[in-house]
Amino acid sequence: MNKIKSIVVAGLGLTLGLASCDSGNMRRTPGHVYAPDMTYSRAYESYTSNPNFSDGLTNRAPVTGAIARDHAMPDHLNEGDTIAYKSYTTAARFNADELKEGGRLFNIYCAICHGPNMDGNGPLYSSGKFAAMPANFKDAKYLHMPVGQMYAGIKYGKNMMGSYASQLDTKQRWMVIAYIKKMQSENGGDAFVFGEATAKPDTAAKATAVTEEKKVAANK
Question: What's the sign of the alpha-carbon dihedral 94, 96, 97, 99?
Fold first, then answer.
């Protein structure tokens, strides 16, 4: 009998204990909280004063030299530094989709003046809006123009052409230049170097054959 009573009392105690844990989210005394500052953080609105900083500002400036996500590192070119323009280049290489995007950007921002065929006969010139023809990228004067000069022209503008630095980020500028250089390479310009490096089929086959020969020799 005593054993049964003990079981009943233990069961009641367990039931009451479990019931006390579920108070329908109305419990006002949760007891002790470990690290309350982490549980109940003190949030500050962006433009309110903040006693945690010496200047009292909640909104913080980015760390000096920080680069926003998806943004490229800034270039070192200065406006008017023509010597630096001629030697400036990039190690970036672009696949077919990126070159296609370069063409799309060219048609949006450049073709209005330089023409969709890069011959300088864009809608603004053909309509009589400009007295002088914009640069003809198929002309000998521009076929071998250093890419750095093109980059500077996009970033700072040149003659009647304004700056497109706010419309095109660093990568987009190079994609447009790569597209121009690809078209120029097909019209007597320099060999195209902005494409992705891919091994030739015969080179890849030879490399595979050599690897297989080494494996066979090692197993003998």
Answer: positive
